[in-house]
Amino acid sequence: MSERSAIILFAHGARDPRWALPFQRIRALVSQSLPGTPVELAFLEQMTPDLPAAAARVAQAGVERVTVIPLFLGAGGHVKDDLAALIRDLERKYAALQFCVTPPIGEDDELVAAIADWVVRQPR
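Given the sequence above, the corresponding structure tokens read:
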């Protein structure tokens, strides 16, 4: 039997619900590309679902492995401290699940190059 996995995209959150629209688009695109893989979007603060709620949903889906992808440009305190503490709590609560946290998306060379390319293309 192959390992069932899930993805949780993890973003900061904001008061304005429109702020979440790009993240919801990312979630939809990932879901379309990975049919059969549960893909959740979770927020650190001010928006729902939070990470524990998203983890509960994927746990109910019967997965064995959860990859948490921080949608942050860098590994500041929210990733190093807040996310790490949340993951420790989740690992205690869901001992049968394997949680894997990727580096923040902003540390990916390809993404950084794409952002720089976009900036260069803007009118001056």
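The longest strand covers residues 5-11. Try to locate this feature in the token string yourself.
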